[in-house]
Amino acid sequence: MYDCQTCGACCAYSREWPRFSMESEAEIALIPAAMVAENGSGMRCEGERCTALKGELGKSVGCTIYAVRPLVCRDCQPGDEECLIARRHHGLPV
Ligand code: SF4
Ligand code: SF4
Questions:
Q1: For the chain, what is the radius of gyration of the CA atoms?
Q2: pTM (2 decimals)?
């Protein structure tokens, strides 16, 4: 299966993806405020890329808030539908 640490495509596909859903306010408060969207709806993105993603897409990446990342990020699994959409979009092999 795919190696997320050499990918990152799903973290840079759409600013609509890393949104908050069932997180509590206490959980969201653990995320650095600078990385939360101004309207509080989810992660702050630059373009379509989540600001918590460090590194170079398709080479070496990491989530800088991995332990406290949103639920949607926990649900995403390598090889699932969203993963394949994102990898294709970024020209990574599927
Ligand atoms: S697109 Fe798939 S392989 Fe890439 S980081 Fe996301 S879940 Fe992992
Ligand atoms: S919070 Fe982390 S796992 Fe979620 S989109 Fe941003 S970089 Fe990816």
A1: 13
A2: 0.97
